[in-house]
Design a protein that fits this description.
Length: 177
């Protein structure tokens, strides 16, 4: 069944009366085959799934996920701001299978080697920043938060370099086959 934003809001409000912790669930699906994504949506309220409609009853399309979330926020304005969101892009964003796997692997190894150099430079910059933050772990709350954030950034980049190494090892096997 297709429902307008106002009707979905009414249904959600009625559901919230008996289920105070109710959370709206949104499923967005890509329309067409263009990588300039457009979505249509469905919303599940109290176990029932409805197509999202314009005020004129036509299927509502969204140019981005943000617009769909804003639509949902108006539907569930009496909600707690939590939504379950699922986005189905189908094959639109799926990676293409290369014709020549060896050549593809070789080009990816080169690309990843450049990325690794860049990531190692970022680690060096972060390390330089961290040397300036000595003692911040016992400083004021803002200093402690900043140092924790910079350490988290460093950890993310370090694990990214490890992922690059793993992928290069995998691609090397293909390139040498």
């Amino acid at each position: 069944m297709r429902k307008t934003q106002r009707e979905l809001s009414r249904l959600f409000g009625a559901w919230k009366v008996g289920t105070p912790g109710a959370v709206a669930a949104i499923l967005l699906t890509v329309v067409g085959t263009s990588s300039a994504l457009k979505f249509v949506g469905k919303m599940t309220i109290d176990g029932n799934t409805y197509e999202l409609a314009t005020d004129a009853g036509k299927i509502k399309t969204f140019s981005n996920v943000d617009d769909a979330l804003k639509f949902a926020a108006k539907v569930a304005e009496k909600g707690n701001g939590v939504y379950t969101v699922e986005v189905d892009t189908g094959a639109v964003l799926a990676s293409k299978v290369p014709n020549d796997m060896k050549a593809f692997a070789e080009s990816q190894i080169v690309r990843l080697a450049k990325a690794k150099v860049s990531q190692n430079a970022i680690i060096a910059e972060i390390d330089a920043d961290l040397t300036l933050m000595v003692g911040w772990e016992v400083g004021n709350a803002a200093q402690q938060a900043k140092k924790l954030e910079v350490q988290a950034q460093r950890a993310a980049v370090v694990t990214d370099v490890a992922a690059i190494d793993t992928e290069v090892a995998r691609l090397t096997v293909i390139a040498n086959a």
